[in-house]
Amino acid sequence: MQDVAKSEVLRRLKSVEGHVRGVAKMVENEDVTYADVVQQTNAIFSAIRRINTVLLKDFVEERAEQEGVSEDMVRDLVKAIDRVVK
């Protein structure tokens, strides 16, 4: 894994971890609606999808570099990934 991707994934994972703790506190509080909890868990799912996107892009870039694929091809693949995951 490239250093930039690694630091971004770690940063995002720590953010998700904090978000999960926040949702747990919301539930413990008992003065929260189901809709609020669902909204927050959906935000967590979105954050995890973004982590997966970073990982997938890094994988494509790393493999492309190993295989000698052109930068244009890598850009096209990364654009395709962005379109699919949004």
CATH H level, superfamily name: Metal-sensitive repressor, helix protomer
Give the distance, in angstroms, between the N- and C-terminal Cα atoms. 23 Å
User: Can you name the CATH architecture?
Assistant: Up-down Bundle
Number of helical runs?
Answer: 3
Order of helices and strands: HHH
| Tally of individual domains | 1
Structural class: mainly alpha
Radius of gyration: 17 Å
Draw up the topology in text:
Layout: H1 3-29, H2 34-67, H3 71-85
Helix pairs in contact: 1-2, 2-3
Protein described:
By secondary structure, the chain is mostly helical. It has one domain (3-85): Metal-sensitive repressor, helix protomer (Methane Monooxygenase Hydroxylase, Chain G, domain 1, Up-down Bundle), CATH 1.20.58. Helices cover 88% and strands 0% of the residues. It is built from 3 helices and no strands. It has helices spanning 3-29, 34-67, 71-85. Helix 1 (3-29) runs antiparallel to helix 2 (34-67) and helix 2 (34-67) runs antiparallel to helix 3. The radius of gyration is 17 Å and the shape is elongated. The two termini are 23 Å apart.
